[in-house]
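Quick illustration, no need to memorize.
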Amino acid sequence: MVAVTMKALLEAGVHFGHQTRRWNPKMKPYIFGDRNGIHIIDLQKTLQLFKEATDFVADSARQGKRILFVGTKRQAQDAVKEEAERCGMYYINNRWLGGLLTNWATVSRSLEKYKTLEEKKEANYAGEISKKAVARLERIRKKLEKNLAGIRHLDQIPELVIIVDPSKEQIAVLESKKKGVPIVALVDTNCNPELIDYVIPGNDDALRSVRLIVSKLSDAVIEGVTMRKSELEQAAKEEATGEKPETPAGVLEEVVAAPAPAHRPVGDRRPAGDRRPDTRRPSDRTPR
């Protein structure tokens, strides 16, 4: 289970919100108070919601779901890239591609183009007739790499999106809601938490705060992936050896010792003691 301490949150400055004049009133339930014109986030609630979020992320990874980390603001770019790569998931850290979730067919074509140019680059652009053509292709490749490098191996839309600062990533939030993709997000006091499925109230501007939360979410992914791998290995072992889970001895003995249920004719639902002998003559019993 992934955990974080109150001390770690305090040292990273997770409790510092925005200036009080810049707040979103919908964040009121997550605010402890204010100090010198700065809202202070209630870290007790952050701890509680952090656990719910990491449990959900770990369970999603255990089910083999595709998870996308999103953070295009300067403070989040490096952490998002490094932590997504560490847990083997996907990321967007430069610019959200409009239609990534709602127009996957177009995005997938761009991905195919990027992969083709990558292959040509590895072959040193063999077959190109001029340096000018090579330079043009390289410019296109670099532009695509800037936006697509983190999702180059993504073959379908993600099934969970982790966002740093939903106010900055509004298009990502709206596309996720439209496609029914759950969102886990680090939400500061200037954000609207209503569109987020798993809110983690916290400072989304400080490097240390962003790094701490994103790294813990990455840990949750790794935990889920590890559990999935263990379960698959156990299932494969049982299938290969023909082993089946054994029925506990006590349960088997109870089943064997249990008396057989009494059976009655379907048409007679009266208790056995209430039945009267049939006094009709044989000729009267013959159906007409």
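Strands lie at 16-19, 31-35, 38-41, 67-70, 90-92, 160-164, 183-187, 198-201.
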